[in-house]
Amino acid sequence: GENVEQHPSTLSVQEGDSAVIKCTYSDSASNYFPWYKQELGKRPQLIIDIRSNVGEKKDQRIAVTLNKTAKHFSLHITETQPEDSAVYFCAANGYSTLTFGKGTMLLVSP
Amino acid sequence: DSGVTQTPKHLITATGQRVTLRCSPRSGDLSVYWYQQSLDQGLQFLIQYYNGEERAKGNILERFSAQQFPDLHSELNLSSLELGDSALYFCASSVGITSGRATDQTQYFGPGTRLLVL
Fold it and tell me: Do A32 and B103 touch (CB under 8 A)?
């Protein structure tokens, strides 16, 4: 089945800096890659996703890039703000369901 | 609000007991997924149902079982509870597909049920 590796497990940045979280996947047939943000004690919420027919997608300060050849995709957050502090999960679609990475705790210091 | 509802929000019980967690998917979604999230842990996929039938199984213990009813709500049953079962249990739903790879499988999560086993 699909296997998703996510790095780093923890990321600390200063407010205004950029943050990058990287994921690799194992199944070359995967073609849908969502990212979820989970604030403390809350539900995971979809923030952006990308399908394999595009290499990059942007939504304001958030962007996701996909390299199908290398089987990795990344989340980029620019001009980070304290409210970006949360755990971020990447995922890839396997057969029938999503496989999630183990999560990255992003800490943005004022 | 994702449209996915879960009850109860909190549950405190004792070891050896049995509990039932309930989930109602978004209107129109046929697939329901259950996840366990322990402290400092990621999302551990337990089981998926599609239109009443089991579709995929993850790391679900034999003490745990689930089902999806004709009205598409789902229940997760946890029995012979142990201290280590204390966790957040999330339900998620998606449109679902009848077969093939899940290309458009955005999952929408419910607020979760926090289970504490004492």
Answer: yes
Q: What tens digit of pLDDT does each residue of B17-60 get?
A: 999 999 999 998 999 999 999 876 788 899 999 999 998 898 89
Mean residue pLDDT of chain B comes to 91
For A36-67, write each residue's pLDDT tens digit.
999 988 999 999 999 877 789 999 999 999 99
Q: A 43-82 residues with CB below 8 A of B?
A: 43-46, 49, 51
* AA letter at B18: R
A3 touches chain B (CB under 8 A): no
Residues with Cβ within 8 Å of B4's Cβ and at least 6 positions away in sequence, in order, are B23, B24, B25, B26, B91, B92, B93, B108, B109, B110, B111
Share of chain B above pLDDT 70, in %: 92
Q: Cβ of B100: how many Cβ atoms within 10 Å?
A: 8
What separation, in Å, do the N-terminal and C-terminal C-alpha atoms of chain A show?
Answer: 41
Pairing of strands B10-13, B113-117: parallel
Task: Tell me whether residues B90 and A45 touch, CB distance under 8 A.
Answer: no
Enumerate residue ranges in chain A where pLDDT < 70: 96
Cβ of B110 within 8 Å of Cβ of A102? The answer is no
Q: Which residues pair with A36 in a beta bridge?
A: A46, A89
**Strand B44-50, strand B53-57: pairing:** antiparallel
pLDDT at B13: 97
- Contact yes or no for B42 and A100 at CB 8 A: yes
